[in-house]
Write a structure and sequence with these properties.
Length: 460
């Protein structure tokens, strides 16, 4: 059943201004290794090596929880090489005021255009088919739904060659997308890349409409509007664990459709994109503005530390811990933030090469901190560049508890300490106490939890 504009764009009353992201327990996106539970400990370590109110640099800022927390007491520059992080941190660090009625009006216009001649009109054959197959699955026949999910995204699917029910709908959808009015690939990017895979086809087309409205807004409003779209994507994504590493696998290893497929799919694919978007937008708008001048910058950590833009008095760094590149878990958010049309990476299996099942970007960032052979040099570069600035460094890292069969870390605590002492006169290593990180999506890939899961290197 199609959602009416009034239901899609609900009106919410004003909420109380939030005096701090962490105090409300809200984080904009689901994030691996989030520091939400150890913010006070991180702040205490930073306060111990820098004067009150002095400027801090949050390298590898990620979802921005540390940046937002520190901005309550000092100026903050958040730095991350990913665009989605810059957008989210920008919205957290520098809240803006926006009249919700105006946002609702602009969204309604974008929705009307999308229905009349844009993404929603183009996607309608796939939307109607998906909703029909979901109903069939609810009635006990999930085979069609499984086949639809396996078909992959509109961008790379070969199902249109099969002459099947899915193939015919896909062919008509592609014909509509090829019409001159859809010549700008950005206007249907989420639909073509991620519809049916990470989101329902309707949700993907609605995300495109939201991003279109955001990118037509004044420049000073754009960051928070896009940030709310990223938070919405993180909430409605249809995967286990709410990450973007892998779409659902509808069948077991024997080729049988999983009994949980309908419940797993319906749990997220029926969510209202616009209702969740407006709720997330209000959360951003209701954050209390910092009294300091804060910045969110997209940059490689090494480039920023060498940049003339660096003028901070203390650096906090939270580099990746494992061989799992973070960009693999957030590539969808990166594409939504950039709103580009990236090439899709390929995989070769059983002698056949095809598009990656996760629809990964070809240019997905590969962090040297996640590569065992490159990590020592990356840490050396980090320590040396901060030391050259003659400012203290607080670094987070999670140890590898081999006796607990924990998920392997790239470096050991002793290895990092050894490198740090080459550049700093004093290096203290402190445990933050009992704490466990988010685990991987599949339970069979999970390792035993290590509760002593975070250490701080305090380097002077």
């Amino acid at each position: 059943m199609e959602m009416s504009p009034s239901k899609a764009l609900p009106d919410h009353g004003p909420e109380k201004k939030d005096d701090g992201l962490a105090s409300s327990g809200w984080r904009p996106i689901h994030y691996l290794g989030s520091k939400l539970r150890v913010l006070r400990t991180v702040q205490e370590a930073i306060d111990s090596v820098s004067s009150s109110g002095s400027a801090a640099c949050d390298l590898f800022a990620g979802s921005g929880t540390v940046s937002a927390w520190l901005a309550q007491s000092r100026p903050v520059t958040s730095v991350d090489i990913q665009e989605y992080s810059r957008v989210i941190c920008g919205a957290l660090l520098n809240p803006v005021e926006l009249p919700i009625p105006m946002v609702r009006e602009n969204l309604s216009k974008a929705l009307d255009i999308s229905k009349a001649s844009g993404g929603l009109r183009s996607a309608m054959p796939m939307i109607e088919l998906e909703e029909k197959l979901l109903r069939r699955a609810a009635d006990g026949d999930p085979e069609g739904l499984a086949s639809l999910i396996e078909a992959g995204p509109i961008l790379t699917s070969c199902a249109d060659r099969s002459g099947s029910e899915i193939g015919r709908a896909l062919l008509e959808c592609r014909r509509r997308l090829d019409e001159p009015i859809n010549k700008d690939p950005r206007s249907t990017m989420a639909l073509r890349h991620f519809g049916g895979v990470y989101f329902s086809y309707r949700q993907a087309a609605e995300l495109d409409a939201i991003l279109d409205a955001a990118n037509h807004a004044p420049l000073e409003q754009r960051v928070v509007l896009v940030a709310a779209a990223l938070a919405t994507a993180s909430e409605i994504v249809n995967t286990v664990g709410k990450q973007f590493a892998q779409p659902l696998r509808p069948r077991d290893k024997h080729g049988q459709v999983k009994k949980s497929l309908y419940s797993q799919s319906a749990r997220d694919r029926y969510k209202s994109t616009f209702e969740i978007y407006l709720l997330n937008l209000e959360k951003f708008l209701n954050l209390k503005a910092s009294k300091f001048d804060n910045r969110a910058i997209r940059s490689d950590y090494s480039d920023f530390l060498s940049s003339p833009e660096f003028h901070e008095s203390v650096v906090y760094a939270d580099p990746p811990y494992t061989r799992d590149h973070y960009s693999r878990f957030y590539h969808v958010l990166e594409t939504l933030a950039l709103r580009d049309d990236p090439k899709i990476s390929t995989n070769t299996a059983h002698g056949k090469t095809g598009p990656s099942r996760g629809v990964y970007r070809m240019d997905r960032h590969q962090s040297p901190f996640c590569i065992r052979s490159q990590a020592p040099l990356a840490f050396e570069k980090l320590f040396s560049k901060v030391a050259e600035r003659r400012v203290p460094l607080v670094l987070s890292y999670s140890p590898y508890a081999s006796e607990k069969n924990a998920h392997p870390r790239v470096m050991t605590i002793d290895q990092i300490r050894s490198i740090a002492t080459s550049f700093f006169a004093s290096v203290d290593v402190e445990s933050v106490g009992e704490f466990s990180h988010s685990r991987l999506n599949r339970t069979d890939l999970n390792k035993e939890v290590s509760f002593d899961a975070e250490y701080l290197f305090v380097c002077r």
